[in-house]
Amino acid sequence: MSDAAVGRFAPSPTGPLHFGSLVAALASACDARAHGGRWLVRIDDVDEPRAVSGAEGDILATLARYGFVHDGAIVRQSDRAPLYDAALRELDARGLAYACACTRRDLEGAPLSPAGERVYPGTCRDGIPREKRRNRQRSLRVRVGAATVAFVDRLQGAQRQDLAREVGDFVVRRADGLAAYQLAVVVDDADQRVTHVVRGADLLASTPRQIHLQQALGLPTPSYLHVPVAIDASGEKLSKQTHARALPDDPLPALLAAWRFLDQPAIEASSVEAFWARASRAWTPARLPPVKMLPAPRFSYAV
Question: Where are the beta strands (DSSP E) in the chain?
């Protein structure tokens, strides 16, 4: 097995895995194996207040029951604060980050981007305004300047984002002192030498921010492939927030449903072991539906 290709699956321990999680895990694992590479599992628990007791154990047990085999030790973001702090110090030392005292309420009137996100107006970019200095909590934002980030997604094609117009200076350390997701994922992927990021298309708009940070920190940029996310009958993404049901105890029907959801070549399997033996060889990214979302199969566990 070559060490040249490294993929990863990075669930958050906020609840059990659901059909949408399975789609992302299956795509990332098959893609890594198809490249003759390694597949890692990382627990993205940087947002510690949202972590649910017992969720990590349930996630790992589900992956094992479904036949996923990861390489190397499980990495947890909650153990990696020194790495994030070092990256934040580097950004600060280079004049690329600044303290911000704005609250969410302050930003309610900020303009909306084409994607529906609030665009930070630069309120604290040149120093915290006098009227905001009473707010002792400070986040840390990275300067985007006039950066326009372009990249080619392996499925979604050419992407381009004007960070100043569509995002603004974004948070890399939250006001509660925790590293923001955008920074943590960049540091982790570089530290673990991840070369192929395969994940849901709901994260496509975050990728330019991550590439901007990679460039600012002198880190390599992985190859990206964003697969369709599964949505329920009301058009909502399957997630813990939309009360997506946990995966069933019987893994094979769900694995086959996720495989079909990704429009992969038809395979027959009477066991989980047989499924993986065939899926690893049959994985065909060119067949993936080049859309951002698809309805989940109408199974009782998926909606």
Answer: 6-9, 38-43, 75-76, 97-100, 139-142, 148-153, 157-162, 170-173, 196-200, 223-227, 229-231, 293-295
Three-class SS state of 134:
coil
Beta-carbon neighbour count of residue 183 at 10 Å? 28
**What is d(CA 132, CA 137) in angstroms, rounded to the nearest whole number?**
10
Q: Is the pLDDT of residue 301 over 50?
A: no
DSSP 77: G
- How far is the C-alpha of 141 from the C-alpha of 48, rounded, in Å? 20
pLDDT interval class at 116 (50, 70, 90): confident
DSSP for 263-287?
TPPP---SSHHHHHHHHHHH--GGG
Place of tokens 């969720």: 55
Per-residue pLDDT at 3: 55
pLDDT given for residue 158 in this prediction: 98
pLDDT digits (tens, 9 = 90+) for 68-82: 999 999 999 999 999
Distance CA 76, CA 99 (A): 27
Sign of the CA dihedral running 294, 244, 64, 222: positive
Counting every residue, how long is the chain? 303
All domains of the chain, ordered by start, with CATH? 6-78+228-295 (3.40.50.620), 81-182 (3.90.800.10)
Q: Of 239, 232, 216, 221, which is closest to residue 169 (Cα–Cα)?
A: 216
pLDDT tens digit sequence for 139-158: 999 999 999 999 999 999 99
First CA to last CA distance, the chain: 37
Question: What is the rounded distance in angstroms from the CA atom of residue 184 to the CA atom of residue 45?
Answer: 10
Task: Please state, as a whole number, how many other Cβ atoms lie within 10 Å of the Cβ of residue 266.
Answer: 9
CA-based nearest residue to 87, from 174, 182, 187: 187
CA gyration radius for the chain?
A: 20
pTM of structure: 0.94
Q: Identify the pLDDT of residue 233.
A: 85
pLDDT for 134 equals: 83
